[in-house]
Write a structure and sequence with these properties.
Layout lengths: L6 H19 L8 H11 L6 H12 L4 H22 L9 E2 L2 E2 L1 H4 L2 H21 L6 H15 L4 H10 L7 H11 L1 H13 L6 H28 L2 H4 L5 H4 L5 H25 L7 H12 L3
Antiparallel strand pairs: 1-2
Helix pairs in contact: 1-4, 2-6, 3-4, 3-10, 3-15, 4-6, 4-10, 7-10, 8-9, 10-11, 11-14, 11-15, 14-15
Length: 299
């Protein structure tokens, strides 16, 4: 993909590539069981900023990875993300009724269907990585499967959600809050970057270490900005219920640091992410722009 594209045009192209790839990958609603497949497509298509696929493509371009591999990896990561949103919105979790500007899956369909949608999306993600060549060799591809599995499980996203549920009504320290979000939000963002990098070639161990640090910082940065937006933006802008964290008495960066402190921390972490990328020079321009986009996004 041409590096002469503006960031906005590049972002639009990747978002459209991802949407097309997901449309092709997901079973058609006409295939039995029709209601489940219809609900899977409802949960995944036509919404979201596709931040994780953007990170996968940006890291992959830096590593010289073929775009087709990055499409497959983007689908896998986005399917995991979509499944997590479906389950998080259910009554037994966050009990939310709005996601991406439309009724959540359990509201539009029913709770049992929502549970099965999440299960099916998760397994489709791993089937995608198992069925398609996404690396230079089989050993690297197995490593990539392990990265996505750990990021999704009890030592990653699912574990972070468990910590989050247990923290309701408590005020966590900054270290405890970071530990929770490194797992709940940051693990899959980190996986998105690393998978893109592993799909290419020529990056040294030092380069991979830099990308890993960048990914960890950006994962926390995403959550800090999410907390700020939850406190400042309205439901129509967010596409989900605004103020939900405060109403549910959940610990956030805003409740811990205040709005001003949270915004200051976001600026500091953006600077850290950009410093980490500096040895790559202009080749990491997309990744740097994505960090800036995450901080300054309006919704």
């Amino acid at each position: 993909m041409s590096v002469t594209l503006s960031f906005t045009d590049w972002m639009g192209q990747i978002q459209q590539r991802t949407e097309t790839a997901l449309e092709t990958l997901l079973p058609e609603a006409s295939i039995a069981p029709q209601r489940l497949h219809e609900a899977m497509r409802y949960a995944v298509l036509g919404g979201g900023k596709r931040v994780r696929p953007l990170l996968t493509h940006a890291a992959g371009e830096l590593a010289g990875a073929p775009a087709e591999r990055l499409d497959s990896l983007s689908c896998a990561v986005e399917l995991i993300h979509a499944y997590s949103l479906v389950h998080d919105d259910m009554p037994c979790m966050d009990n939310d009724v709005l996601r991406r500007g439309k009724p959540t899956v359990h509201v539009e369909y029913d709770e049992a269907t929502a549970l099965l949608v999440g299960d099916a999306l998760q397994t489709l993600a791993f089937q995608t990585l198992a069925d398609r060549p996404v690396a230079e060799d089989a050993t690297t591809q197995l490593t990539m499967l392990g990265i996505l599995a750990q990021a999704s499980g009890s030592r990653g996203m699912a574990g972070g959600q468990a910590i989050d549920l247990a923290a309701v009504g408590r005020q966590l320290s900054r270290a405890e809050l970071e530990f929770m979000h490194i797992h709940k939000t940051g693990a899959l963002i980190r996986a998105a970057v690393l998978l893109g990098a592993y799909a290419g070639h020529g990056l040294s161990p030092a380069d991979m270490t830099r990308l890993d640090h960048y990914a960890k910082v950006v994962g926390l940065l995403f959550q800090i900005v999410d907390d700020i937006l939850d406190a400042e933006a309205n439901t129509a802008t967010l596409g989900k219920t605004a103020g939900k964290d405060a109403d549910s008495d959940k610990p956030t960066y805003v409740s811990l640091l205040g709005l001003t402190g949270a915004k200051r921390l976001a600026d500091d972490m953006l600077a850290d992410a950009c410093r980490t990328l500096s040895p790559f020079g202009s080749a990491a321009g997309r990744l740097e722009s994505l960090a800036d986009y995450i901080v300054h996004r309006a919704f």
